[in-house]
Amino acid sequence: WGFSMGTNYHFHSWRVFVIICVLPCTVSMVALRFMPESPRFLLEMGKHDEAWMILKQVHDTNMRAKGAPEKVFTVSVRHLGQQRGAPLFTVLACVLLSPDLYEHKFINCRFINTSFLEQKEGCHMDFEQDNDFLIYLVSFLGSLSVLPGNIISALLMDRVGRLKMIGGSMLISAVCCFFLFFGNSESAMIGWQCLFCGASIAAWNALDVITVELYPTNQRATAFGILNGLCKFGAILGNTIFSSFVGITKVVPILLAAASLVGGGLIALRLPETREQVLM
């Protein structure tokens, strides 16, 4: 579907989809101008008064939401977690959820008493409309499933702890990857994808919090830049590996993905716990 603007320009549905996907990033960039600076950064720069006022503002806002505006802000600040939610396009979801319909679409299919009346030469069969709609639907559901994961991880971050959040999230993601082997329908695959996205976003949120509490800005920014580059390379490598095993077996790519997630969760446990440390 779509609509026309004049006689020479047609605004198709994919353009609307792209614009809607751009809106969250645009709103985030605008909202960054109204957000205060990190109190930890201000403390490292020696601006204690500004950090104090920001912490007081956070405390007053939280107490007002809990119905206790009369509480007084004191210097016993146990922790400060800074979280940011971002749309996650997970590499493993791209690797594991590519259906094998394209290469083997008409295997074991029979056309009995089928005739076509068409003025043009050849047999004109178009199955692209349903596939295009399915692509948009899967992308929308995958992005929507991140929302409950963000909410749950934000509520349980201080109670569970950063390291347990990372390890548990990656372990649950590995289980979701393993059960993809038993998905024999589109609905089952989409459902496991949503569970995978909702579970894996908790590990990213915990990683964002613990890196802010452990490492300075320059090291953190460099590490995330390298990580994003490795994610792009992993997406290319994963698609190549998965396409080579599509016609053979699904066991190898699924086990590789699950093993990578379990290994990442175990490696994350070597980081120091920052849940009960005093902000210096």
Automatic annotation (TrEMBL):
Q: Which organism is it from?
A: Leptonychotes weddellii (Weddell seal)
Q: Which UniProt keywords apply?
A: Cytoplasmic vesicle, Glycoprotein, Membrane, Neurotransmitter transport, Phosphoprotein, Synapse, Transmembrane, Transmembrane helix, Transport
Q: What is this protein called?
A: Synaptic vesicle glycoprotein 2B-like
Major facilitator superfamily (MFS) profile domain segment(s)? 1-275
Q: What is its main location?
A: membrane
Instruction: Tell me the PANTHER family matching this sequence.
Output: SYNAPTIC VESICLE GLYCOPROTEIN 2, SYNAPTIC VESICLE GLYCOPROTEIN 2B
How does the protein associate with the membrane? Multi-pass membrane protein
One cellular-component annotation, GO: neuron projection
Q: Drop me one GO molecular function for this one.
A: transmembrane transporter activity
User: A Pfam family this protein belongs to?
Assistant: MFS_1
Output the GO biological process annotations, alphabetical, semicolon-separated: neurotransmitter transport
Q: State the family it belongs to.
A: Belongs to the major facilitator superfamily.
Question: This protein's superkingdom?
Answer: Eukaryota
Where do the TM regions start and end? 12-35, 133-156, 163-183, 189-210, 222-245, 251-271
User: Can you say where in the cell this protein is located?
Assistant: Cytoplasmic vesicle, Secretory vesicle, Synaptic vesicle membrane
